[in-house]
Amino acid sequence: xxxxxxxxxxxxxxxxxxxxxxxxxxxxxxxxxxxxxxxxxxxxxxxxxxxxxxxxxxxxxxxxxxxxxxxxxxxxxxxxxxxxxxxxxxxxxxxxxxxxxxxxxxxxxxxxxxxxxxxxxxxxxxxxxxxxxxxxxxxxxxxxxxxxxxxxxxxxxxxxxxxxxxxxxxxxxxxxxxxxxxxxxxxxxxxxxxxxxxxxxxxxxxxxxxxxxxxxxxxxxxxxxxxxxxxxx
Length: 233
Hints:
Number of strands: 3
Structural class: mainly alpha
Radius of gyration: 20 Å
Strand content: under 5%
Oligomer: single chain
């Protein structure tokens, strides 16, 4: 399929704006963001397969947009380590290895365990109640077997917990590591429904331990959450 020229658009998408076009520039950013979200969902769900090459025009046709916002979104995913550029062809979904996943889990534990232990000692118990809806959202997604939404709500829960540390740099780094840990392995089995439900239940258990300032349980739960979820937390 021939690649669409830059600026060409499909039915249903407005013409691409020029830099400095004001409100229309917001529309372009919105389209790119929506495509980025859709591609991340497709990656997490396994709809975009590790090792496969996808062209921006083909994906643009699939989403009903021009190749440009797809290409921009894919370039963002390349920065995040989810895909790699294949010159004159498109983008290849990165093939992950169990070792890479284990390394990500180790780094996340090195960052999040001490932070959560500090939060357990310093954050008033009542503050943790405000995070219950986020934990319940992960449970609802797991109960439906919705892997993509579970991944999204899981990140939201961890961001909310770590945000209480008041460190924006920590939050950005932890969120990037978390997202990278969610890209599936080439040969990984689809997570069982029971596994997702069990992983989601750990969020509520963690809130209980944080509120009770039970430091050994907090540490054990966080470490288990990283290493026992087969790449889905």
